Amino acid sequence: MAPHRDSEPATTPNSTGSADPAFGFDHLMGLFQEVISARAAMTVARRAPLGRSRLVDAPRARLLLALEAYTAELNARNLPVPYGIRDDLRIQRRILGRVADTSG
To answer: How high is the pLDDT of residue 99?
Structure first.
């Protein structure tokens, strides 16, 4: 039992996430999962009957926020923004009236 106890304190600092190098990767993946989820919600909203275009407003705003958060994190890490993400971000900004494009 004693060797098992000695190995536990070595893993305790990493449980907070601050010393774990994979923590940042998990955060980035979480942001990407939100983009995917927001895109799925947009797909569902687009299938609404004609005359109910208001149903798309909330999912579109969610998608824009998700794309902006993901892009900001990629830029903060000096990682390239995939073309599809960049293009989708520009489209959503223009549709919602945010013409200013800071993603380069």
So the answer is: 52
Distance CA 56, CA 47 (A): 9
User: By the 8 A CB rule, do 15 and 50 touch?
Assistant: no
Residues of the chain with pLDDT under 70: 1-24, 53, 98-104
Question: Rounded to 10 degrees, what is the CA torsion of 34, 74, 98, 37?
Answer: -10
Picking from 101, 95, 98, 100, the residue whose alpha carbon sits closest to that of residue 57 is: 95
Q: Using CA atoms, how far apart are residues 89 and 64, in angstroms rounded to an integer? A: 7
Buried b / exposed e over 56-66, threshold 16 CB at 10 Å, is beebbebbbeb
Gap between the terminal Cα atoms of the chain: 57
